[in-house]
Amino acid sequence: MKKLGLYIHIPFCESKCYYCDFYSITKIDKEIKSVYVDSLIKELKLYKDKIDGDTFDTIFIGGGTPSTIDAEIYSKMFEYLYNEDLVNKDAEITMEINPKNRGLEYLNKIKKNGVNRLSVGIQTFDDEILKVIGRNHNKKEAERFLESVNNVGFENLNCDLIFNLPLQKFNHIKKDIDKLERFYAKHISLYSLKVNPNTKMNEIVKKETYKLMEDEEERDTYYLARNYMKSKGYNQYEISNFAKKGYESKHNLKYWDRAEYIGIGASAHSFLENKRYSNVSNVDEYIKSINSCILPIDYEEYINKEDALWEFLILGLRKSEGVNIEEMETKFNTSFSKYREIIKELNDDGLLIRTKENIKLTKKGMDLSNYVFVKLK
């Protein structure tokens, strides 16, 4: 029996943030949301043969905005998971949540459903910046929501922050970190704003309505934020993730450890039996496929040994502890000596450190991680 991860994708949002290029749908009625959750249950049933005897020790409900769906609708999905003994006793169950329009009642209900970890999309507490990036909540709503989180007793709390936002300086981020600590956040994810094509943020930047940080300032801001979080007891365990001791995201560690997981829902991705595959993105097509008792997979790729080894390296190097050499050699029946020259080159360039047991990225290597990953290919 294996312990798998389960990712549940909810593609619904109340509104589209200006920087977001993920597939999502706005203005969806309650009936469609209920039908969608019914489809998630049906998809789990279609996986029954593949996961016979296996359980989920991490569950992550992401989006989109999962909190756009009422807790009562989620109840039937959790009821199925528990009735079928699919959830490990000590499973980490995370839900992404928007701080707007949800409070004590909703939090109590999802906690009763089994959710024991929250991931809250704060991004920043600055009202002016929140407006510029198209977030639909404000500072007071975020603070009120986090107060409710504390009152309900969600101890395992992650909050997302974004830096390199228009009008933002390090002092904004410092204040955000201080506030999150006051609300007992045990985990902070810190992402640099990436301006993607086909987003409203791209239009804003092109028109020079607002300017982003220059590259040097962006990196300096990241270093300052990283050091400040360290001083507050948040250990950097991955390029963009910081946690108090014992509060690292178990689900996300599955991705970086190249562990198996199943993704259900429109556009969800899975990794199982050395295959990576993804579902159709369109919600109508997804529901239609499920109702025909067909897994809604539109892409599938078998990962050969060479690519599997590369994945193991690049995913493992995202973690601060890096890659264990002995584990790599044992898992892939290969000798680390084949990488000796490229590792030496990356070491000489100040991008990578080789210890007796591990290889790991330097601070400079984290900045240039994509370059390192290509060199290791």
What would a concise description of this structure say?
It is built from 15 helices and 17 strands. It has 377 residues and is of the alpha/beta class.
Task: Walk me through the topology.
Blueprint: E1 3-10, E2 12-13, E3 25-26, H1 30-46, E4 55-63, H2 71-83, E5 87-97, H3 104-113, E6 117-123, H4 127-132, H5 139-152, E7 156-163, H6 170-182, E8 187-192, H7 200-206, H8 215-231, E9 235-238, E10 241-243, H9 250-256, E11 261-264, E12 269-272, E13 275-279, H10 283-291, E14 297-302, H11 305-317, E15 323-324, H12 325-332, H13 340-348, E16 352-354, E17 358-361, H14 363-367, H15 369-375
Parallel strand pairs: 1-4, 1-11, 2-3, 4-5, 5-6, 6-7, 7-8
Antiparallel strand pairs: 8-10, 9-10, 12-13, 13-14, 15-17, 16-17
Helix pairs in contact: 1-2, 1-10, 2-3, 3-5, 6-8
